[in-house]
Amino acid sequence: MGFRTGKQARDSKSEAINCEFPDSHRCHALLSWLHVVTQELFPKFQRSYFPDPRTYDFPEWALVGEYFYHASDVVAFGTPLTAETVTESYRKGIFPWYMRGVPLPWYCPERRAILDFNGLHIARSLEKIRRRESFKFTIDRDFGAVMRACAIAKRPDQGGTWITKEFIEVYSELHTLGMAHSVEAWDESGNLAGGLYGVDAGGVFCGESMFHKQPNASKLALLFLIDHLRSRGATWLDAQVMTPHMEALGAKEVYRGEFLDRLALTQSQSLTIF
After folding, report:
1. pTM for this one?
2. Mean pLDDT (the chain, rounded)
3. Which CATH class, in words, describes the domain spanning 61-109?
4. Is 114 in contact with 254 (CB distance < 8 Å)?
């Protein structure tokens, strides 16, 4: 099958639809009917903001405007941060990471940190603290407070935060839509002692950031989350980038292809994790 062009199209008028015959009402009705049929047979084109990381040819450098940027793990630069773009990105295994002075990069790293719940390792000292039950844990009780606390948390290995005002606004919208979630740890006085937030990428929790104001609050919040996810049928979570804390809990790095395979398989199970 092919498309007719030029003379072929003109010569085939009699074979197709001749709109020059006197009964213009019949012609209009026929065209209207064809429009309805094609709309039903062929789904509307859905705009895609990001390429498929499975087939994307990751360049080492990308020219954006007048500057070259290192792009070995990046699928796009400068795509606007909206609820729509973030939703699509996480479904494809991509996440945004703000860097000062760089058009917003959207990452799908070659090596991805994940935590298999079967490989979870809890140190004896942390398990003892856990049994004391010194914190009360909630889910989605104060998403905004958790994000803001993560944004100002001091991190020795980072000169600033990637959680900008724009990120807080967009992820708060995703929270309203039921896609972004938080876990809070409250002390005995009702103060927010720690927590974390992340995104549900279709049955896989993608961790974004953690904070603590009191020792071990964020670690215990993560363990609470893992228990919750297990109860909903989940078997792993996406930690995105390896950290000493996640490595101590048993997280490991997998290659991009394996991560995307696992993501797609889990998404096909249609888990409801929140």
Report:
1. 0.81
2. 86
3. alpha beta
4. yes
